[in-house]
Amino acid sequence: MKTGIIGCGNIADIYFSNSIKYFNNFEIVACADIKPEASKHYANIYNVENLTIDQILNNEEIELIINLTIPDVHFEVSKSIIQSGKHVYSEKPLSIEFHHGKKLLELSRQKNLYLGCAPDTFLGAGIQESKKILSNNKIGNIVLGSISMGVAGHEIWHPNPDFYYQYGGGPVLDMGPYYFTALVNLLGSAKNVYSQSRTVYNKRVIGSGERKNQQIKVDIPTTLVSQIEFENGTLVDSFFSFDIWKHNKNHIELYGDLGSINIPDPNTFGGSIQLCTEKNGEWKTIETNENNLGKINVENSKKTNEKPGIANYRGIGVSEMVDSIKNNRINRCNGELSLHVLDILDTIIKSAKEDKKLELRSSVSAIEYFSEEENFKLLK
Ligand SMILES: NC(=O)c1ccc[n+]([C@@H]2O[C@H](COP(=O)([O-])OP(=O)(O)OC[C@H]3O[C@@H](n4cnc5c(N)ncnc54)[C@H](O)[C@@H]3O)[C@@H](O)[C@H]2O)c1
Fold this sequence. Notes:
Blueprint: E1 2-6, H1 12-21, E2 27-32, H2 36-46, E3 49-50, H3 53-58, E4 64-67, H4 74-83, E5 87-90, H5 98-110, E6 115-117, H6 125-135, E7 142-150, H7 170-187, E8 190-198, E9 203-205, E10 215-217, E11 223-230, E12 235-241, E13 252-256, E14 259-263, E15 272-276, E16 284-287, H8 292-304, H9 316-327, H10 335-354, E17 358-359, H11 372-377
Parallel strand pairs: 1-2, 1-4, 2-3, 4-5, 5-6, 7-12
Antiparallel strand pairs: 7-13, 8-11, 8-17, 9-10, 11-12, 13-14, 14-15, 15-16
Helix pairs in contact: 4-5, 5-10, 7-10
Residues 6-11, 33-35, 38, 53, 68-71, 73, 77, 91-92 line the site of nicotinamide-adenine-dinucleotide.
């Protein structure tokens, strides 16, 4: 499928290179950006057409556009893609406003077009193998869980980190999509949220680039601690922070009535799962780096010199969506899922602001296991 990209910044490179290296069913033929020099840069490297936004939207050859702009404009850009009659796949989050995400889902349905959204890391072996373990009832009924993401702040490495500390930024909207997309895949829809928040530092100091040592103002909460109840009854404690210098917490742990599972970083495709099925027993480690997408890592590593387990398959969600379009079925990184995830993120922030427990406004159908065979089919 002929594909275009709007938004040619940091993350664009991996979409261009992976489309060439891995996937057999979509081809990036053109790109555009509000900054013409940004799209020119990638057009030259990857030998694709450098178009204006209007030209890419009106190009009849292109059936799908990947939206890699900043979160603040995801809604406007995705809306214009759908209105131009093309399928859209957006980077995360779907939007920074729930009502805008809802509008995108409605519009795509009205126009009979596919709406996809990152992250697609949950299609990797780390989360898919965990899903298999849970559906095989290895730890029984899941009753409790704990998720955690804590860093000292992106201003340490990002040369223009202002947006992380303004409305639409913060640790939940930035990193929450990875955790909640994985959790919703494993547990189903969430039901309600209660959160509290803190802003530990009122100012941040930029650590790199031309603005090094410049101070920026913090306008939003930088730590959000929440309790999230899922429709299946699971109660999850959730911790997202840009205020933590160092910690030893795990990314995602789920506790069932027959055992516990420690699930790898949902921002990667592989990792080690730990499983314990005896009261107070030992962890058993299950490596996923040589499974599923990890197994393909091993094969590709011969060609590309990548180390198994650290390869980055971003774009697999686009490829899976193209395959879904061709076979007339629902894609896994779909609009309903990303809207529900956005609902969770937005409700976490609102609940802290209003200091009360809030019900979610959406739910999502179960997302099917992504098998190795389906995965292989998409690869070169
Ligand atoms: N950088 C990463 O490591 C990373 C990782 C995962 C996901 N993401 C997500 O990818 C998206 C992009 O992030 P990034 O780091 O590449 O940002 P970036 O700022 O490097 O690039 C964004 C690009 O979008 C362009 N743009 C902005 N508004 C536009 C508009 N209205 N129309 C057309 N182009 C417009 C900008 O000119 C810029 O070139 C974000 O949603 C982010 O959450 C980034």
